[in-house]
Amino acid sequence: MTTTPSTSALLELVRLNRRFGVMLAGGVSTPDALRAMAAEASPGYREVVTRVLASVEAGQPFTAPLEGFPGLIPAIYREWVVFGEQTGTLDVGAQEVAELLEPLAKGGGDAELGWERIEGAVSLIQFTRRCAELMEKGLEWWRVLYLLTVEAPPSFAEAIGKLPPRRDDPHGWQTMWQRMENHPHTFSPFYSAMVRLGWESRAMDEIMRNLADLLYEDWRLARLNRCYATRASLIIAHDAPPSAEWASLTAPQQKLAVTLFCRAAAMLLSAGHDSADALAVCALLLPADRQEALQSQLHSENPIDALRAVECFPPFVLALLTAGDSRGRLDYAFSQAATVLHAEME
Predict the structure, then answer these.
(1) CA angle (333, 211, 173) in 5-degree steps
(2) I need a surface site. Which of 80, 148, 255, 277 has the fewest CB within 10 A?
(3) Burial of 110: CB neighbours in 10 Å, binned 0-12, 13-18, 19+
(4) Residue 93 and residue 39 share a domain
(5) Is 322 exposed, middle or buried (0-12, 13-18, 19+ CB in 10 A)?
(6) 183 domain residue, yes or no
(7) Domain's final residue, options 218, 237, 256
(8) Of 20, 1, 14, 153, nearest in space to 72 by CA
(9) How many domains does the chain have?
(10) In terms of domains, do 282 and 209 share one?
(11) Angle at the Cα of 234 (from 313 to 207), degrees rounded to 5?
(12) Where are the beta strands (DSSP E) in 153-297?
């Protein structure tokens, strides 16, 4: 059974890792950074850091002692440290740990969500970021797929499959999103649809970077506003399906859905995607009743009229979109709306 760290433990882990990452990035040696952390840590974490320091000074792996502290060091943290140690990116990894665990800690721990779901959510964010980073570095798609399926946690590796690293296969990404669609408990319909759109538009690097940004915004705002008790987020799929009815969502859940819709629409429209196609993908962020209503109207009505008809969007958002559409700047209008809503939820 997975041990769930307490809220206070998560808060301290966030603080220590942020300082550790900054020290490493600033040129402080790993042993000296660990000594500094031990000096300011609570008794429990001081013991963890002291054992890690002894392991490092003995020439042993950084991660070797961590498994002995399941109540303080979650498994997903150990996975990041192993990867950072293997790739020489402990400084970046430590700061990413702090960034992704901070909303959870500040949101109160979310013990009712279940640590398994938390680890799955955070793993998906890291998986998506890594995919975007590798593609932005110029790696060919087949090499990215190979590296990701080798590194991925078991649930992701199973969903994606161990694709052979074949340079001449033109259907690699297509096979990937088809497999994602067949694993809805790992990849939500919105996530799979975004990957498919990236494949069809030959813009996978941009789509994956946008997805990574959306995932983190969803994760952060949902945790800070305690929007989901049985799911991690709107974008991150888990055992519990999203509500089928808009009216059954709480006010924070409704606001988060509109925020993410606007953010995703701005990203897709600014990248040149057709408005009807882009908004049909964004509709997957809404409950089933509003998804169907919006998708059925997009190709027969003006996009703003279709959005108004589903009765999800606040008047100020519709006013912004109407003005933006009349000026040919619908993408910017969606971005403005998302920025305002995000600030309110922060």
Answers:
(1) 125
(2) 277
(3) buried
(4) yes
(5) middle
(6) yes
(7) 237
(8) 14
(9) 3
(10) no
(11) 90
(12) none
Residue where the block lists tokens 């799979």: 192
Buried b / exposed e along 179-209 (16+ C-beta atoms within 10 A): bbbebeebbbbbbbbbbbbbbebebbbbbbb
**Last residue within a domain, chosen from 237, 261, 289:** 237
Residue 188 amino acid letter? S
CA 290 centroid distance within chain = 24
Look-up: residue for tokens 């990035």?
25
Give the chain's length. 346
Mean pLDDT by runs of 10 across the 346 residues of the chain is: 66 85 88 92 91 89 79 73 70 73 61 56 76 77 66 62 52 66 78 84 83 82 66 52 71 89 93 89 88 83 88 93 93 94 89
| Domain of 116, in residue numbers | 110-237
The residue whose two tokens read 């059974």 is: 1
Decide if 256 is inside a domain: yes
Cα dihedral 77, 82, 83, 84 in deg (nearest 10): 90
Q: Which ranges of 28-89 would DSSP assign to H, the alpha helix?
A: 30-40, 43-57, 75-87
What gap in Å lies between CA 124 and CA 121, rounded to an integer?
Answer: 5
Task: Measure CA 186 to chain center.
Answer: 12
Shared domain for 51 and 83, answered yes or no, is: yes
Q: Are 48 and 54 in contact (CB under 8 A)?
A: no
Can you say how many angstroms the Cα of residue 270 is from the centroid of all Cα atoms in its chain?
A: 21
Whether residue 256 is found in the same domain as residue 329 = yes
Distance between CA atoms of residues 172 and 165, nearest Å: 9
Check whether residue 44 and residue 84 sit in a common domain: yes
Domain assignment present for 193: yes
